[in-house]
Amino acid sequence: MFKYSLIVLLIFMCSAFAKAQSPQSTQQIKRKTYKATRVDDAPTIDGKPFEEFWDAIPRGGNFVMVEPTNGQPERDTHRTEFKIAYDDNALYVAGYLYDSDPSQIFRQFSQRDEIFAQADLFGFFVNTYNNQINQTRFFATSANALGDAVSENGREDFSFNVVFQSETSIDEQGWFVEMRIPYRTLRFTETPVQDWSFQIFRRIRHLNEDYSYNYIDITQGNSSQYDALLTGVENINPPLRLNLYPFASVVYDTFEGESTTDFAAGMDLKYGINDAFTLDATLIPDFSQVAFDQVQLNLGPFEQLFGENRAFFAEGTDLFQKGDIFFSRRIGQTPSGFRNIDRFEDEDIIDNPDKSQLLNAVKVTGRNRNGLGIGFLNAITSKTEATLFNNVTEESRKVTTEPLTNYNVLVLDQQYGSNSSISYVNASTWRSGNFTDANVTAIVSNHNDKELRNNYRGEFKVSNRFTPDGGVVGFSTEARWRQTSGNWRGRVDHFFQDKNWDPNDLGRNFRNNFHQVNGEIQFNQFTPVGAFNSYSIELRGSHRRSADPDFHIRSNARVAARFRTRERNSFGADVGASTRNLNRFESRIDGLNVRYAPNVNSGAFISTDYRKKFAIDIRAGYFELFGDPEVGYNYNIAPRYRFSDKFILIYRFDWGKNDQRISYVTLTDDGETSILSRRDTHTVENSVSGTFNFDNRRALSLSFRNFWSRAKFSRDFEELQSDGRTIPSDFELEEGDNPDANFNVWNLDLAYRWRFAPGSEATLLYRNNIFNFDNQGRIAFEDSLSDLFDQSIRHNLSLRVSYFFDVNRAVNWFKSA
């Protein structure tokens, strides 16, 4: 306990030192004020804000550069102006983005939320709570693509999707934007006078310059703290927020001579419970067109995890990330009893589903006028059964591998002060029957001082697992201080997890029973110097120990530098070193470590200017162990070519080898000894992605990936000793056993997407998949690819149509009819 107190004391001593070195007072943020104008009629949203409607509305202007020269006034040749109006239904925003040479305006076509294409960008960010923390961001590009995101403390989440209108145009003076943002896309309190703030953002791609209406000091705090004030919005009532998203899909699948056709229909809905909170529900969910997972050969001790591709669980989930105890891919995951089915000697498993079926899911999110954010998510998956067949009696029976299961998450997040909050998070899993239940609770504090110079973060988490044999309680803590202003910035943090910490029923965590101290000092050059727009140099170090029993696991240090030139080329390098490492998981025996020698590692990258038609990313890495034959090296090359403003193609090649790594093979029959040997792995991955945009509503996209990896184990086996070292073993594999691996997977998706109405989309998707896994550890890539094409290929063709239906608009239409 003394050492933990010492660490906490060190954190606050560092903080005090930083404050002592900084001026005691800081310039108050200057916030411009713009008054929105109430109107009786709505403008025509056509991207040409020159009609009489806009004449009486005052202009805002005098923008300031964000990057590269922070604080510099806008160019006379590239002035930016805007106007904001409102009525009882929506906000109306006009943007005037002047350019002395409109032929230079980048205008690459892209689809929704793909706003970082090579096109100029306009952003309207509104904070309906005026708390300098949360923003709802609406974007438009010069090629008329639109995007939306929610932001907390400047961190954007583009999984947020609402229905708003945006149109753009270009003429001899520059380019122009008109937006209609219905109130149903915002959450605000029902008061006579609204207290809002906002920001206008402009990116001029060919000049490599960003501007904002209210000055953003990039050396201090974060961008959401620098909003201007939006006044004049009065006497509006939050509308009925009920949106329906009915959908229908048909899927044709053929594999190994068998074909199936499935039809599905269902509906998602969004309902505004009150002025601040929204209910989302998916009824009869359909995930037939979810993107494929990036599957790899997995020889490690941990399960392989993938990102969330299901829209319902990816959209608007920022609150649920608090405490990092919720991982949505657990919902509908592989049944807990999938690999441990009790069967009789004469039984075969003839059906064993690898996923649990999601029945329904709901979530409620929002924040009230006092800054209290509430998030609640509940999902139910159906009972999953495997089918066993007895070859003697010729009878079949079913075994439950996952019962009916309920998952829920509750988040209470109270904001206060200057970008600070304290959160309570609870995640629980309930499985009916004789299965494990679980509950995890987290308290999270995130505090920023008034001067915007220091951030303090603390977490305390408790996991409870209720097994048929009893309960297990685990703990996890985190304490962190980091500097958030100035060119020089420091960070110190400490993590602790006891040996019983296990949030994995609804979260993800692979390592426990340790405590670790990390430190970092970084120098950032935010403004142009010489040939560089910006650069950073950082030194990081960490020290990890086992908690019970106490011993040193590993320490490491790393120095890294990254540079960005005025021409928007980037390059960097890093080098690091690590002490010997006691790996506590490779042995597959609790308490028995595998000892790896000290190592040195390095890497470098180059990324050229994406504004050019041709650009390329190159990365390479190398590491080796001292006094040990293990060595590893890898590189990847990713060229991209923009054939036109409508068509871009990106190819990526990854190559890697790791030779002579001491690795787990198996356990002896008594389970008391871990057998290891040296392992060589070789990996090659090819991927292609491309999009042809007919316009900003129709696109044909290609996604292809072929991943190959082989692993070859030495037959000079070794036995792991209690000190982590190994000795030669006379162990021999039984006939038919072979730890070598040859893994090859091919995925191809070809999709046509048509956004035929606001919020409505039709997608025609063709995909095929081939997979092969065997024990050819010496096979070459070309031969493995040939074997892959000998396997059966799965073809899948699907059509999905979803439609956006605004109930409030329909009600108003019937009233006026």
Automatic annotation (TrEMBL):
KW Chloroplast (keyword) present: no
InterPro entries xrefs: Carb-bd_dom_fam9 (IPR010502), DUF5916 (IPR045670)
SUPFAM superfamilies registered for this protein in UniProt: CBD9-like
One MF term in the entry's GO annotations: hydrolase activity, hydrolyzing O-glycosyl compounds
UniProt domain Carbohydrate-binding: residue ranges: 45-193
DUF5916 domain sequence ranges: 238-814
Record-given protein name: Hydrolase
Organism, as annotated: Nonlabens ponticola
